[in-house]
Amino acid sequence: MTEPNKKVTPLPLWLYVLGLVLFTYLFFTILRFTADTPGNILLAGIYFIEFGVHEASHLIVMFLPPVLVAAAGSVGEISFVALMTYAAVKAKSYFAACFTGLWLMLAFRSVGLYMADARAQQLPLLGPGETVQHDWNFVFSQLGWLNADVFIGTVVQAIGVVIGTISLLGVFYLVYRKQTRQF
Questions:
Q1: How far is the C-alpha of 29 from the C-alpha of 36, rounded, in Å?
Q2: What does the mean pLDDT of the chain come to?
Q3: Nearest-angstrom CA–CA distance, 70 and 59
């Protein structure tokens, strides 16, 4: 049961500025992200969660046709974080929404890099058994899009950068609003 008329103590401006610095650092770290060198412990931890969601997504839809099962890992990666972003916005937790927006940028970057690697197949893959099938090599081969792998992967990464930029601008806006006492 909540107490009526309970006053919430606002956070000091320096915490918002610290958040801005950390989010800016995270944004630029994600821009340099590669699967084999995640950049720092925070990004490595987030990527580890994404990897788990990716693999779980394959298992959840394993009854579907193989091409959908192969694509489900990456779709699940992006959908999971998009749902967290939606929940943060709906709860009016805007700093959390900006954080999950940056996480969504990482998800798009990860998926885009994986897609762009479909022909080259140079990324290290993990999975059961001796041979592991590259999801996007299989999907793009089935759809006849294998020659467009780099283009598609680059577009997906660009979408992530746009989302991340909007999220970072959101943090700047929140700090500005805090500084001018408008919220």
A1: 14
A2: 90
A3: 10
Among residues 102, 118, 93, the alpha carbon closest in space to that of 174 is found at 93
Decide which of 150 and 182 is more confident. Answer: 150
Q: At what angle do helices 135-143 and 66-90 cross, to 10 degrees?
A: 110
The alpha helices in 91-182, defined as continuous H runs, are: 94-116, 135-143, 149-179
Please name which of 124, 101, 100 lies closest in space to residue 34, comparing C-alpha atoms.
124
- Helix, strand and coil content of the chain, in percent to the nearest 5, comes to 70, 0, 30
Q: pLDDT tens across 54-104, in order? A: 999 999 999 999 999 999 999 999 999 999 999 999 999 999 999 999 999
Q: Which whole number is the average pLDDT over 124-137?
A: 81
